[in-house]
Amino acid sequence: MLIGLTRRVTLAIAISGALFGAAQAEEITGAGSTFVNPVLSQWSSDYSKITGDHVNYQSIGSGGGIAQIKAATVVFGATDKPLPPAELAQSGLAQFPVVIGSILPVVNIPGIAAGRLKFTGPILAEIYLGNITKWNDPRIAAVNRGINLPNIPITVVHRSDGSGTTFNWAHYLSQVSPEWKSKVGEGTAVQWPTGLGGKGNEGVAAFVKQTLGSIGYVEYAYVIQNHMAWGSVQNSAGRFIAPSIAAFQAAAATADWTHSTDFDLVMTNAPGVNSYPITATTFVLMYKKPKDAARSAAALKFFKWSLEHGQPQAAKLDYVSLPPALVRQIEAYWAKEIK
Amino acid sequence: MASALALRRKGANAVFVAFCAVMTFLALGLLVMILYSLLKNGLGGLDSKVFTMTTPPPGEAGGLINAITGSLIMCAIGMVAAIVIGIPAGTWLAEYGGDSLYAKVVRFLNDVLLSAPSILIGLFVYEIMVKPLHGFSAIAGGAALALVAVPVITRATEDVLKLQPSSLRESGVALGTPLSTTIRNIIWRAASSGIATAGLLAFARISGETAPLLFTSLGDQFQNWNLMKPTAALPQVIYQFAMSPYDDWRRLAWVGAILVTGAVLATQIIARIIIREPDRQ
Amino acid sequence: MTISAAPFISTAIGPPRRGGLDQLFKMLCFSAATALLAALTGVIVSLAIGGWPAFKAFGWRFFTNTTWNPVTDVFGGLGPIVGTLVTACLSLLFALPTAFGVSIFLVEFAPRAIRQPIATAIQLLAGIPSVVYGMWGLFVFAPFFAAHVQLPLAMAATPGSLLDKLTSGVPNGANIFTASIILAIMILPYMAAIFRELLLSVPTQLRESAYGMGATSLEAVWKVLLPFIRRSAVGAVMLGLGRALGETMAVTFIIGNSHELPKSLFDSGSTIASTIANEFTEATSAMHYSALIALGLVLFMITFVVLGIARVLLGALKTY
What we know:
The structure holds 3 protein chains of 3 kinds.
Chain A: H1 2-23, E1 27-32, H2 37-51, E2 54-59, H3 62-70, E3 76-79, H4 85-91, E4 93-108, E5 118-119, H5 121-129, H6 138-143, E6 155-159, H7 164-176, H8 178-183, E7 196-198, H9 200-210, E8 214-219, H10 220-226, E9 229-230, E10 232-234, E11 240-241, H11 245-254, E12 279-287, H12 293-309, H13 311-316, H14 324-337
Parallel strand pairs in A: 1-2, 1-3, 5-10, 6-7, 6-8
Antiparallel strand pairs in A: 3-12, 4-8, 4-9, 4-12, 10-11
Helix pairs in contact in A: 5-7, 12-14
Chain B: H1 2-42, H2 48-52, H3 65-97, H4 101-114, H5 118-133, H6 138-162, H7 166-175, H8 179-190, H9 192-207, H10 211-214, H11 234-242, H12 247-274
Helix pairs in contact in B: 1-12, 3-6, 3-9, 3-11, 4-6, 5-6, 6-9, 7-8, 9-12, 11-12
Chain C: H1 20-58, H2 61-64, E1 68-69, E2 74-75, H3 78-109, H4 112-127, H5 130-156, H6 162-167, H7 176-200, H8 204-212, H9 217-246, H10 249-254, H11 272-279, H12 286-316
Antiparallel strand pairs in C: 1-2
């Protein structure tokens, strides 16, 4: 009899909890990086079917995400460029990564199909600095023996709008080329020494497709969906790596997260024999002591679910989930930092 | 002999008529080309799902209903505010203000606001509505759209009213009616077609605006009826989806573009029917 | 003492004021105008506040420097400013005669039955979202232009000639010339619609008197109709110019987005609006943000100057 009663009480609590929970569906607003938009919208849609909470993420750009979370008009912001711990402490923000993507160089050269061309970091920097101007330059030919490179000028295509993709690309070039680092530097927007600006990944892809002899940098998802001619890039271990989910995960695994404070680490040029060198992370920013604690907690539940169960959806959209060790590190960080 | 001059005049006239015809067909041809692109890319995606489902993540079936309702609500707010402020303001400039210094200043600043990049107008509304209230909302989006539409309506209303012949006004005075009645019953009615054109131009303008909504209504992938919360809008969804690499999102973007263009066309046709003008031509 | 049978009619100039309702109406209109003024002033003031740090840091160099470096926080707006002026002028150059031709055709020459349909069709151009113009421009118009106009011209021009200088540039159709064309298509419907309304408001006696004297259509339009609507027509041009100066989305797609000064018609450039749209959402440093707002304020200044010139020119013309 007692067991029956317990069962009935449990059932009653469960039902009322479900009803009560459904009636209290949370509305959480987030904003920021365009890069994560597809995967966050997928996670949000699936999460709302399971829990009824609406996580409304809008892509207004990393700068927008940072500005909005600082102004407390959203519950979380997303940025491709990590904030330094000093700035985080000043605003009372916590920061953690959610997903990994990568950037590929794409070309439009007659006769060169996807995956044939090889680049080293310094060569990419020289091209974007305007120091290498023809495709049959000896420096390019040196790493591409056996390929007949035509004598046509290189048209450099870059982003016209500020973006996390540019930040990671420029950061990578700064790491592999001292001249780039001193002349141009890194940022979500930089002063490009040469080339045309396309708006968004789409704009760069369109320009590269339309202009013979051009080179651009585009996110992995765009390259796959648009069947573009990408080139492989040499990593810090000296191997030429073709982009693949495995190569990106290898980069994530070897990046030094444990020694970073507030996960302030840009993953490009990760060490590791199989790492693809131009991988990027998107970070989420949230308040450590939020005014709206209920919504903040609901947002954390959403991210917990996404990090633990969101891998299939991410892979379907050509994103890379974080390795399990990193997920554990993030969850420990939450327990410590976010109230 | 007059014939040489007559020939010259006739020839010049023929060239002029040809020029006008060519310009018209050029404009129509461009319209056809753009509509063709619109229809070619989007017509295939136009089905009942568009009107029943909300914006989906990539790869899933979905529609645009949240963006449609959001756009309707915010354009309605914007147009109502713009008409309520713009038509009286234009009337004041044409009938009461005349050439006074105050009128000159208002007129001048109105023209300046006409050319403001709409993103800056959105930013202004962000500073006064979104930041203090700590949240994006449909109302803020409507306010930004109103600020974009008001100068259009004010400018066009003033121009159209000023062109009404003064004999209309004199007839009102001669009958002993107060100026306000003259304006409302005679001048507005005479200029109704022009004012309607002004309203349609303003609606056409704001129905396609993305930039002012970026920082005011933000957007929402779910259906939202709460005016104080972020809301989706068709131009914002079009922009977001068109710049993505996913085919189904891009198809939805073109469908959205067809919807916006179709809405503008429908409003024009309906307005012409309502403001049935005796054939002035 | 006679009681006058006739109602008292004031000899003061103007219609008699019947108290409350009339004054209320006038007050309402005045409040609307004042509300408008308040909003405009608010926008300008908030821009000035936001842009002040940039002006203070760079001074006059903001207007003369082409360096736009978000990494070192050095900003000079000459590139976008020149680009804005050039695209606005070019687009007006293309759109004005076209709008003029279209409106005249609709009012004077078109067969009666198709007048309204064509007018509605032209206005439909105004209803197409600016994003669509951008996409159409980038994916359809730019390649077409590059293949059929830019490349042939560049190949036909002898090196060193003026034509060569004017047509040099990467042949991918993304330049200030194509951006101006797209802008022209966008502002055409506004101007054409207003021109048409103005032409229709010309009193029939005026039109009849011109034709009655045996004038050809060209002469009637040029010498009678246009002078009559000239003042208000400038208003239509202002509407078009306003759109051309402030258009954001369509231009960013197709202008090529380089902060350098364009060296030829087919060179890429940027406008103030496109620069703001491109970089605003990602601007992370305070100085970058401030420089973008300052650019917005510069656009207002440009509009002030252009409108001021227009008014001076109009003032010199005699009213009809």
